Amino acid sequence: MLKGRVSELDIKGPAGILRAIHTHTPMELPEQHTTPLAIICHPNPQQGGTMNNKVVTSVARVLCDLNIASIRFNFRGVGGSTGEHDGVQGALADIQAVLHWAIDSLTPRGFLLVGFSFGSYIAFQAAQSCPDLAGLICIAPPVDRLDFQMQLTQKVPWLVVLGLQDEVVPSDQMVQWAERVQPSPQLVAIPNVGHFFHGQLPKLYDAVMAYVQTSILTTTAR
After folding, report:
1. 3 state DSSP class of 159
2. Is the pTM of the predicted complex or chain greater than 0.85?
3. Domain holding 73: CATH number?
4. Phi-psi region for residue 85, left (φ > 0), alpha (ψ -120 to 50) or beta?
5. Range of the domain at 192
6. Residue 28 domain-assigned?
7. What is the rounded CA–CA span in Å between residue 99 and residue 37?
8. CA separation (Å) from 115 to 33, 96, 98, 105, 221?
9. Which ranges in the chain belong to alpha helices (H)?
10. 123 in Cβ contact with 136 (< 8 Å)
């Protein structure tokens, strides 16, 4: 159960309305933001991914517990968001619309971009030009099918979480990529965990909790 108040949003996107959920924080005050706003991207819509995916909602929960508000949204053509799925380019245009809406409507203190699987690629790409980027979290990045080879242009705290028994993306490829890419992310490779973290969500919760506490909140508090 999320501790913060939850609001449903309809955000104007390039292909129509983007359905979103804004999880407020228990301590949030109007017009006062002391932590970054997290934007959370869901996995591949063509494989059933939505903003209600359990990994996505688990991340929203840990962030709420840390008094960080979040917005999770459905890419175009998914669960109330209008338009048709348009792959990476459409998803990138959608997250840009969410970022612009947040800047205009919420005046956040920076952004924490988070993505799971396909969503991790969208978050990674959006991080290249995101204004006031405070951090990036990539969960189970599909490095075997999408091009994660470019260097992250913004040097911010960056976490990569993966399961060593991932049945969708070869874990050895994810580890090799994380060890090679620059700037280097913090890597958390969890034994006996698959791609969807079935029965292992507490381990994901702990990894994100520890990272945000030590790498994000200590930075934004300065």
Report:
1. strand
2. yes
3. 3.40.50.1820
4. beta
5. 6-220
6. yes
7. 10
8. 22, 14, 14, 22, 24
9. 54-65, 87-106, 118-126, 171-180, 201-211, 217-220
10. yes
Each residue's pLDDT, cut to its tens digit, for the chain (222 residues) gives 556 588 999 999 999 999 999 998 866 544 455 789 999 999 999 889 999 999 999 999 999 999 999 999 999 999 899 999 889 999 999 999 999 999 999 988 899 999 999 999 999 999 999 989 999 999 999 999 999 988 888 889 999 999 999 999 999 999 999 999 988 999 999 999 999 999 999 999 999 999 999 998 876 554
Total domains present in the chain: 1
Is the Cβ–Cβ distance between 21 and 86 less than 8 Å? Answer: no
- State the Cα–Cα distance between residues 72 and 64, nearest whole angstrom: 13
123: tokens are: 């978050």
- 1 found inside a domain: no
Residue in the block written with tokens 């002391």: 34
Place of tokens 């819509």: 45
Q: Is residue 204, in this structure, part of any structural domain at all?
A: yes
